[in-house]
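Appendix C: a fully annotated inverse folding record. The material below is reproduced so that readers can follow the format used throughout the book. The structure is listed first as tokens, followed by the designed sequence.
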């Protein structure tokens, strides 16, 4: 039992060591389009070959007003090397003009592939966080 606990503890420490950190900026709205900037930082020891994410745009009542799913790393874009950073802009289009100035973006990852062909457990490797108010760009 002790050996099992030690092995489990060690594997959790190794898994928590590196991560793909994603910072989500506030949506910038113009007419029927919203742009949500992602800042990605690879804290893993392997390069990230590809990563697929969905961005959902919510109004002040948490009602979905738009969504987009894209490969944010790989798939005709460069891989993300260890300790490297990259930016990706989600462009979300709505059928009606986006009139709310109080929109929020929720980003979730559906797949992350490393250079050795390994598909990682997203819950353990990807950390998505909103940009702090200090880091928001001025209009």
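Designed amino acids, in order:
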């Amino acid at each position: 039992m002790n050996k099992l606990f030690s092995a489990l503890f060690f594997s959790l420490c190794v898994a928590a060591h590196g991560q793909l950190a994603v910072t989500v900026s506030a949506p910038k709205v113009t007419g029927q389009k919203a742009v949500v900037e992602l800042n990605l930082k690879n804290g893993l020891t392997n390069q990230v070959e590809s990563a697929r994410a969905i961005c959902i745009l919510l109004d002040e009542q948490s009602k979905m007003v738009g969504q987009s799913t894209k490969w944010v790393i790989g798939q005709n874009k460069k891989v993300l090397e260890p300790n490297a950073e990259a930016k990706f802009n989600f462009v979300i289009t709505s059928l009606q003009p986006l009139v709310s100035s109080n929109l929020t973006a929720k980003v979730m990852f559906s797949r992350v592939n490393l250079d050795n062909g390994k598909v990682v457990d997203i819950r353990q490797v990807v950390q998505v966080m909103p940009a702090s108010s200090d880091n928001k760009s001025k209009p």
